[in-house]
Amino acid sequence: MAPVGVSIRVRDDHVVIDNGFLQLTLSNPEGLITGVRYNGVDNLLEVLNKEGNRGYWDVVWSEPQGSGIFDVIQGTHFEIIHEDENQVEVSFTRNWDPSLQGKLVPLNIDKRFIMLRGCSGFYTYAIYEHREGWPDFDLAETRVAFKLRKDKFCYMAIADNRQRFMPMPDDRMPNRSQKLAYPEAVLLTNPTNPDLKGEVDDKYQYSCDNKDIKVHGWMSLEPPIGFWQITPSDEFRSGGPVKQNLTSHVGPTTLAEN
Q1: What are phi and psi for residue 212, nearest 5 degrees?
Q2: CB neighbours of residue 208 within 10 Å
Q3: Tell me, what's the pLDDT at 2?
Q4: Residue 1: predicted pLDDT
Q5: Residues 6+ apart with CB under 8 A from 221
Q6: Distance of CA 218 to the CA centre of its chain
Q7: Which of 9, 19, 20, 143 counts the most CB atoms within 10 A of its CB?
Q8: How many CA atoms lie within 13 A of 254 on its CB side?
Q9: What is the CATH number of domain 7-168+205-257?
Q10: Angle at CA 75, nearest 5°, toward 253 and 63?
């Protein structure tokens, strides 16, 4: 049976793209990823989180010699770029002007999402434009982040030889862990899985060289499904092939970071 075509429904506050395998829900006009429905699971993203804290593009930037500013990128305009039964591509844009100096990174940002017929995933990319004469700034990082359901995704894989059952996010709370030298590192003192007692959890343990970040993500045992971050090329990443970037970590969280 041939796969059904791709459809799109535009509502006042959400955009829903569906190809029969996968249904993607995006907030309108912000372009935040609020829902990923697949294989009978209404939402693979963490339903306990607010809609703005499930899937998103973000940026960390600063004015010269300034301190870093974390910004979840929220669009102000929605547009359908392409629509037919084989492919839907949508755009969420946020434009900069001088009245926003010091408040938002001086970039025009266009976040894109694409779904294809017969595909069990979706594509996302962004276009950043810094026009001549706009203020200088430092860009520490930009990324797309997905926060998955902790009641389903328990097994993480970032390479053939780096995969395991992971601690729960609750295991990092003060009643189950001890803070170490910096906030990202904790000693698991009373984890929900006793086998993990005495381990240190630190998201930087799971960093990889840019050249090695190909596929990483999480698996659910019930139902047996995975959520995978696939990197087609590392050319968009700065710092060269041996610079390390984050991948997946306790959350359960998966990132595409530059």
Answers
A1: -105, -5
A2: 17
A3: 64
A4: 56
A5: 154, 155
A6: 13
A7: 19
A8: 26
A9: 2.70.98.10
A10: 80
Per residue in 108-136, pLDDT (tens digit) is: 999 999 999 999 999 999 999 999 999 99
Q: What is the C-alpha separation between 179 and 69, in angstroms, rounded? A: 25
Q: Which of 145, 5, 7, 4 is nearest to 80 (CA)?
A: 7
Per DSSP bridges, beta strands 33-38 and 69-72 are unpaired
Long-range CB contacts (< 8 A, 24+ apart) of 124-129? 124/57, 126/57, 126/73
Contact 146, 46 (CB under 8 A): no
> Phi, psi (5° rounding) for residue 14?
-145, 155
The DSSP-derived string for the chain is -PPPPPEEEE-SSEEEEE-SSEEEEEETTT--EEEEEETTBS-SB-TTS-GGGSEEEEEEEESTT---EEEE---SEEEEEEESSSEEEEEEEE---GGGTTTS-S-EEEEEEEEETT-SS-EEEEEEE--TTSPP-EEEEEEEEEEB-TTTEEEEEEETTEEEE---GGGGSTTTEEE-SSTTEEEESS-SSGGGTT-EEEGGGG-EEGGG-SEEEEEEETTEEEEEEE-S-STT-SS-TT-EE--EETTTEEEEE-
Cα distance between residue 55 and residue 254, in whole Å: 10
The pLDDT value recorded for residue 232 is 86
Q: Tokens representing 85?
A: 């039964």
Is the CB of residue 5 less than 8 Å from the CB of residue 18? no
pTM over the 0.90 mark: yes
